[in-house]
Design brief:
Length: 269
């Protein structure tokens, strides 16, 4: 995959749909794992009409293995990547930590966004988030990446989905542990970055057309966060799904893709 020097690091990125007419592309920005592979169920549908950018974040995948200082730093990495690629504006779709990155970009660099989708994300941490991520960090540090990857499936998906996709998820867990997870030190820095993140007082500044999405059974970013985010961002749309877990885009890709593409396409009208 192409590697681009931006913001002092080497960032690995990937383009899809380059045969489509030039226009505002879609940027898909992953969560805590930071890897572009998260978006595999979206690529075909999204790249049918748009050029689509995916990338590995600082300390993940093929991007420089460097610890993260803050969500604001990850947002700056993204903006400098756009600069290096000569992209003026994107439709931003961010999952979990990626949604937090999108909030920072919308506040600090509103001219770079045509629209914003905040999916299964947070605007601040609370006691619940500290409990969950304190436990996940402890699992990674004391039990290793293999066990951490296995617990990810339990946090990401509804029980019935996990049962129905048992073999597929086993393969994903092995690949994640072996090739995509950062070192415990880097992952720990990513976890600390999201736990100290708080943009709640700045959300009123966001003027970008915004769609907020979450599933009601999300264990990692409970839907009350999405409700608060949508209430704080002027004119934001909120869609809550009754089931689907933290990774709704993977457990229900057809529904997710249809909703997000409809929202993005409506911004051209």
């Amino acid at each position: 995959m192409p590697k681009v020097s931006a913001n002092g690091i080497s960032q690995e990125c990937e383009w899809h749909g380059l045969d489509n007419p030039a226009g505002i592309p879609i940027a898909l920005v992953a969560g805590m794992g930071g890897s572009r592979s998260f978006w595999k169920p979206q690529i075909q549908d999204f790249s049918s009409n748009f050029q689509v950018l995916t990338y590995d974040q600082r300390g993940t995948g093929g991007t420089s293995p460097i610890q993260v200082e803050s969500i604001e730093q990850l947002a700056e990495d993204f903006i400098r990547l756009l600069d290096a690629l000569k992209i003026e504006k994107v439709h931003f779709v961010g999952h979990s930590t990626g949604g937090a990155i999108g909030q920072v970009v919308a506040v600090q660099y509103p001219e770079r966004l045509a629209s914003l989708v905040i999916y299964a994300s947070v605007h601040k941490a609370d006691h619940y988030r500290h409990r969950v991520w304190g436990l996940r960090k402890q699992i990674l540090e004391e039990m290793g990446p293999e066990v951490y990857a296995k617990t990810t499936s339990l946090f990401f998906y509804p029980p019935e989905f996990t049962t129905a996709h048992h073999e597929e998820l086993l393969a994903v867990e092995v690949r994640t542990a072996q090739f995509e997870l950062s070192s415990p030190e880097i992952m720990g820095s990513r976890i600390e970055a999201i736990l100290k993140f708080d943009i709640s007082t700045d959300l009123i500044k966001i003027k970008t057309p915004t769609l907020v999405i979450c599933a009601e059974d999300d264990l990692l970013t409970p839907s009350y966060f999405s409700k608060e985010i949508a209430a704080l961002i002027p004119h934001a749309q909120l869609v809550l799904f009754p089931k689907g877990g933290h990774a709704y885009s993977r457990s229900n890709p057809e529904s997710f893709n249809k909703l997000v593409l409809s929202f993005i396409q409506s911004q051209k009208k």
